[in-house]
Amino acid sequence: MASTTTQLHPSDVDSYDFIIVGGGTAGCVIASRLSEYLPNKKVLLIEAGPSDFMDDRVLLLKDWLSLLGGELDYDYGTTEQPMGNSYIRHSRAKVLGGCSSHNTLISFRPFEYDCKRWETQGCTGWSFQTFTRVLDNLRNTIQPVHERHRNQLCLDWVEGCSKALGIPIIHDFNHEIKTKGALKPCVGFFSVSYNPDDGRRSSASVAYIHPILRGEEKRPNLTVLTNTWVDKVTVEGDKVTGISLTLQSGEKRTLHHKAETILCAGAVDTPRLMLLSGLGPRKQLSDLGIPVVKDIPGVGENLLDHPESIIIWELNRPVPPNQTTMDSDAGIFLRREIPNAAGGDGEIADMMMHCYQIPFCLNTSRLGYDTPIDAFCMTPNIPRPRSRGRLYLTSSNPLTKPALDFRYFTDPAGYDAATIVAGLRAAREVAKQEPFASWLKREVAPGPKLQTDEELSEYGRRVAHTVYHPAGTTKMGDVERDGMAVVDAQLRVRGLSGLRIADAGVFPEMPTINPMLTVLGVGERAAEILAGAWGWRGLEKERL
Ligand SMILES: Cc1cc2nc3c(=O)[nH]c(=O)nc-3n(C[C@H](O)[C@H](O)[C@H](O)COP(=O)(O)OP(=O)(O)OC[C@H]3O[C@@H](n4cnc5c(N)ncnc54)[C@H](O)[C@@H]3O)c2cc1C
Predict the structure, then answer these.
(1) Which residue has the CA at smallest separation from atom 47 of ligand 1?
(2) Global pTM value
């Protein structure tokens, strides 16, 4: 059996062709594929957190909530949000598999419309066709929530949504997206990356790294170094030479790659590492006394997220026990705006809601609302939000967490806030509809007293939360024409050789859906691009 390691001998520092920083969602895919496609190249995957192999705290999907805020969570705050909620904590996983090791694994393919928006921003080759091909090739086990995990409450909610809003029940969201390019208003059980027989995750690490650790797949050219923090990207002139890191033991090493370094530390930690390495906006770095190695204005800008709000009911009987994947088994897509309001988006979904069969009262209790024992929540979110934020450093001290200013609900036309209001209203319609209605005892929050758009907007924004989808902070685009693009369509960092980025940070815009599959797709495509650049001819015919 192969294993991960926490040690790196000084004689090995210059022996790797590829150095992958971050063993998260994209990083695991790239490490596995690159070492498969290029068996003669040595690949080093470096993860700050521990291995998740055989760790049931991480692997049992149903326990995801207990990981948030714990020792495997970086737990980032937000700056003050005058239009939203300043108390949101952003969980980011510090463990092999990254956020795919502590998320809810709801799995959606991106829409054709999302891919087109990327392509018009200069992401040449990142078409719906490309995503369809690479996502067809994913190793994760993805399927609609199993029958045994569909409890009567959730079944009745799905039926209630369909009847109340006149929308079809969809049996496989991803089949719909793959064949029709998008989702129109509809409701159904999610597709989830998990094993219904044992309730374990099919995360990026489980699907791509564990078969190697179990010895089922031989990959002598791959080393997985855990509990190791990458401190700096090292640069000589315009050439990135590698990185420096701190091992679990506290020892430091400087590594030189033979081929390239790939940053996969996620939409928060990739820009953080770049900024601390002097790769970012000149003024920000100079003001903090960080020597400017390369002025890259877009690093940390274009911070995207899917904000959501919440409406909570008390149930008049308990949630049926032990029949759920992870307490959020189904969701609904709606259309708020007139057709083509966003340009070429027809009548595809522009509003979404998850349901929660637990009291998700984190933000409502702070405002004085009570927490019922038996609760059902709907969480309207904004699939294509228009507010944009930024991530920046406030200190040159690497231990200081970066500032995350999402600027929630600040888009001038008020599109984001209006979407939340419409979502809360749609949720109330569903609550009146049998067979779901007879489960409900009372609306706890916002409560029946709040009725006007202004009241619902104020409430909706103050209790707003995140769907935990930060993205966009090192966006991909046409680096010749867009000064804020950080990487080009080949994921190469502006003005530097030897450095690419592949994680949620490269999203130029937010896909309409939960982004994990899009990140996995970025990982698959990045591995093809990298391997292709270093001699692999595997996809010559198929390359799009
Ligand atoms: C609680 C939660 C629930 C979510 N639910 C869903 C869902 O149901 N469906 C969905 O589609 N999306 C979901 N998401 C979002 C999705 O999981 C993320 O968008 C995606 O996993 C991000 O992948 P990534 O590769 O960009 O980064 P990550 O997966 O975060 O990987 C980054 C990795 O880099 C490591 N790292 C960071 N800095 C360093 C460093 N300096 N040195 C070494 N290693 C470093 C980290 O430890 C981490 O392992 C959820 C996210 C969260 C947090």
Answers:
(1) 94
(2) 0.98
